[in-house]
Amino acid sequence: MNDFSVALGLVDYFNVLFTGLFYYVLLKNIKPNIDKFLYWVIMIGAMLTVFFSFCIPTYKVSIGIEHYEYETPYGILFMTYLGFLISGVGMFIAVFFRNKNKKLEVLSGAPLAVYQNAVFLAMLGKVLMYACIIKMAIKRKKWSSLILYAFSLVLIFIMCYIANFGTIPVAWAHWIVEIVNITCQVALFFGTVILFKERKH
Q1: Residue 70: which residues within 8 A CB-CB, separation 6 or more?
Q2: CA 47 – CA 20 distance, rounded (Å)
Q3: In the predicted structure, residue 63 carries a pLDDT above the cut 90
């Protein structure tokens, strides 16, 4: 018996919602300005991330209903991390590399060592994504977006620090993690909405 509840799983769906909204706003606004191929690279990474992120709270809800023992869903987490990596690398190449040959060189190195450290690569993908949107915020002088991105990034590093402790089998700790993660995703989403919002003259 464990103390994982249906409510914990349902709260986790907010992460999926705001992750999906972030990618929607981002992809909608960058589509006219990047290579079609790289747009689809980012799109594929986003779809992997959102789909497998959806599987995580669904798994938690099923545990809450059936009172199974919690076991970390490593396969689902790996695919979620892979999605972050793919979209992050694609975005980084689109923003920081103008030369098409250079883009292909960088992209060809993305799959290396994926199975060796999925968590590190997910973090790499996220950092690359943040580097891009922060650069865009500075270029557009959207300081509110910059503050929200910085806040969100700090929360990500806090969650990575927590992840170093390994598997978290107790529900109360997951409540803390989910609240921090939801706050992170909400800041990221609203920062991106502000980033692409046109100023009224």
Answers
A1: 2, 4, 63, 169, 171
A2: 9
A3: no
